[in-house]
Amino acid sequence: MSQRQLQANEIQSLLNHLEFGIGNGYIERRGVYLEIEGYAIRIKPYPTDKIRPSLTAKKGLFDLLMTIFPLERDSAELSDIELELRPQNTANKFTAKTNKRGQIWFREVPAGENYRIQVKTPLVVKPLFWIKAFFHQLLKNVSAYGTLIPQWIGSKALAWKVSLAVPAVLVLAVSLTFVFWPSENKIDTTFQTIYANKTDEMAEELRDVQFSWEAADDANVFAFSQGASASAEAAKAFGAGLWTARESLLETRDITLPTPLLPPTPEDSWLKTDWAAYFDLGRWTLLLWTASEFPDEMAKSFWDEQRAIFDDFNATFEARLATDNEAKKVRHQLNS
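The structure corresponding to this sequence follows.
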């Protein structure tokens, strides 16, 4: 069944009709977010007549999918939380409880109303795998239009605009086959696991991830050390890792990296450079972001394996501290 998500201007229109009773609201390309005392509620609106066409067309009504996330690493998974959506001007109200994924559907919610959202039951918690909460931190680092901005690159991350429609003049013939990585390591295994468990919903989420970047002369690109060529290479390697992981999961074949993401000549792969660790970190970030969006698709052993990768990255960047100014920032963000 096709589900058309609202565009940014439509989400803004919806937000104008919602009065949030608690927390702060902000808009992102994939929905509206509320932050409430260490938790986030994501609201993804869908026009009812678009996602359930078998019903009598009911224009002006929305199905709202709400998902609750813990934002802190030591938080716990939410379950059986009752939320109430109450119009300001009528006695009607909508109530529902979270499912095991922390999701709630509010069906056939009229537009043009001012609503208050309230948590009606205490935040019931269960033990949460450490890595799931860690990657939900990425919710705090998503820009207004869906840019994936991992915390360790800063608020002005990814200073390019990636598109499959990159003009040919900006692309060099460095062809990549994305479905399988060129080497076998723990990150490759992570990719294989996510790829094997990929769903249509997961692919839709990945297509919503866009990498936008700023002008090349921006002094704060990536929040790496300003003006240092080494930091520019680290930033490019990380961005190339993000790009490669997304395109691999989407089964995009034989694409060329955009010129700003190419490794320094004469190398044809970031894995052959001094910045291979940043490339791998970019790959892992995108993969773990994907897995954390769909944690129920992954076995417990998967998360145990990610802990081992996390420890490997910590050791790798610790070993670079004496010679790499950016390694200190990466380790700080990995352990913050």
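Confidence is low (pLDDT under 50) at residues 1-6, 19-23, 126-183, 212-228.
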